[in-house]
Amino acid sequence: MKVIVIGGSHAGIAASKFLKKLDPTTTVCLIEKSNVLGFIPSSINLIFKGLFSADEMEKGEVGDQETLEHLGIQLLLETTVTNIDLKKKEVFYQDNATKKITTETFDKLILAMGSDRFAPLIPESEAVHSSIITYKSRAKTIEAYQKINDSNQIAIVGAGLIGLELASSLATKSTKKITIIEQMNRPVFRYFDEEITDILLQHIPESIDLRLSESFNQCQTVKIDEREQLEVQFFSGQTKLVDACVFAVNPKPEVALVEGLVDLDFDQTILVNDFMQTSDPDVYAIGDLIKLPFGFHGEPAYLPLIGNARKTALLAASHITLADPKPIPTSQRSIGTEIFGVFLGSSGITQDEADFYGLETSSITKTYTHFSNYHPVKDFFVTFKVLYDTKTKQLFGAQLISNQKDMLDLLNVLTQMIVDQTKVDDLVFSELYYNPKLSPSTNFLADLGLESLLK
Predict the structure, then answer these.
(1) What is the rounded distance in angstroms from the CA atom of residue 394 to the CA atom of residue 392?
(2) Is residue 436 a part of any domain in this protein?
(3) Where do runs of H (alpha helix) occur along 365-407?
(4) Residue with the larger pLDDT of the pair 136 and 82
(5) Rounded to whole angstroms, how far apart are CA atoms 191 and 297?
(6) Are 130 and 238 found together in one domain?
(7) Domain FAD/NAD(P)-binding: where (predicted)?
(8) What is the dihedral of CA 411, 412, 415, 419, to 10 degrees?
(9) What are phi and psi of 288, to 5 degrees?
(10) Residue 185 forms part of a structural domain
């Protein structure tokens, strides 16, 4: 069996590894157009936080050439796939340096080209384009870091995870004046309800100019005191002068290579079945190229998360190598992050999504401020929100915010309970270890279960 994997993304690397682990006799060839394997775009935040320098950008890569080759994976880096012939099962690729084109045959093909940030619709001005920042690849991230580092007035379009994590990493820089522009009436609305975002808003520094319910319109370069700046214009008619504007918006799948070869959905994601097969059963698509079944309803949703990239990679590799592979489980879109000194986690659907699907739901929101008499934590707090079906009590979603990182571990427990279609009452019997030096005095999940019994 010979499998060609196109794309050294997180999904492509994971698929290559899983193929060799599940069946070491499989011939695996991984083709990547750059010399970078599995880059993490949020590495820019780690640089601004001082975890490593811009000269050490390779620390943002999760792939290791030596490890992959040790597994017996053939790596073709700085190699661009130019064409695919599905009838003949051939891939044509070009060495970026020599321009030599080579043909390689395959039994199975895995598409893992990943995604890129949406480019804003702005006037074709070189000066404007040089001040507009999007980043996902290592090269774009290096450019973004240099531009942001040299700028004092910075606008960030989008108050989702990408925008807030960047703003959080810049907040400690006294010379940086940050404006965040968000068209919705609260930040990170895709993952959190108002009970959680209201607490988050209390932790956003006053130095951050957060403009909610405000939409980006366009931008243009202007000269102020002989200095060229970028004027960001909003649909409300207001403007903001900045040195750089970052578009922190969701990515789009990189599908140009396979347009006309496999079926695409209306949003340009590749259509796949429960085993990641495309309209051609010998071609698989994984990672940021596809949508996944999401939430209790299992409706397809675009969830470009590294965890999902690895999950879909395992599904494709399993279907290729195993006799009885398992189909895709429903994703719960689990995320965890640190923003402005607080830790947030979310899994399952939000109240807005429950309302959209016409579900009759109830919820419990509770804040705890005492950790333990034996192990006191200064100013400790954690707020949970659990969402469940009013009649059946089935858990649909969970959210939390805390000033303690360890609280995020409880989200993993809640996620598994959502996956298992557990009732909220069963939280009463959630089994967590207890150690007086390490554990909180209260089993927070059990207490939430008790709250549900009292409703």
Answers:
(1) 5
(2) yes
(3) none
(4) 82
(5) 17
(6) yes
(7) 1-290
(8) -170
(9) -75, 0
(10) yes
Structural domain ending residue among the three candidates 191, 225, 249: 249
Is 392 in the same domain as 356? yes
Helix axes 306-321, 10-22, angle to 10 degrees: 30
For 428-449, letters b (16+ CB in 10 Å) and e give bebeeeeeeeebbeebbbbbbb
Does 50 reside within a domain?
A: no
- What pairing do the DSSP bridges indicate for beta strands 395-402 and 382-389? antiparallel
Q: Which CATH number does the domain housing residue 174 bear?
A: 3.50.50.60
Residues 346 and 442 in one domain: yes
How far is 353 from 366, CA to CA, in rounded Å?
A: 21
- Do 65 and 209 share a domain, yes or no? no
Q: Are 296 and 339 in a shared domain?
A: no
Q: What is the phi/psi pair of residue 93, to 5°?
A: -135, 155
Tens digit of pLDDT for each residue in 430-452?
888 888 888 899 999 999 999 99
Length of the chain: 455
Residues 191-249: tens digit of each pLDDT: 999 999 999 999 999 999 999 999 998 888 888 877 888 899 999 999 999 999 999 98
Domain count, the chain: 3
Q: Pick the closest to residue 321 from 111, 108, 113, 8 (CA basis).
A: 108
The CATH number of the domain where 339 resides is what? 3.30.390.30
Lowest mean pLDDT among 55-69, 193-207, 391-405, 416-430: 55-69
Among 69, 47, 71, 70, which Cα is nearest to 59's? 47
Same domain, 237 and 266: no
Contact 163, 156 (CB under 8 A): yes
DSSP H helices in 171-293 = 194-203
And the tokens for 383? 């707020």
3-state SS class at 336: strand
3-class DSSP state for residue 58? Answer: helix
Partnered with residue 300 across adjacent β-strands are 293
Examine the domain organization and report whether 239 and 275 are in the same domain: no
Asked which of 231, 249, 267 is the last residue of a domain, the reply is 249
Q: What's the distance, CA 391 to chain centroid?
A: 33
Strands, sheet with 239-242, edge to edge from the N-terminal-most edge strand: 216-224, 227-234, 239-242
Other residues' Cβ atoms within 10 Å of the Cβ of residue 80: 18
Extract the runs of DSSP E, i.e. beta strands, from 69-197: 74-76, 79-85, 90-95, 101-105, 108-111, 115-117, 132-133, 153-157, 177-182
Indicate if 163 and 309 belong to the same structural domain.
no
Supply the range of the domain harboring residue 345: 335-454
Per the listing, tokens 């064409």 go with 83
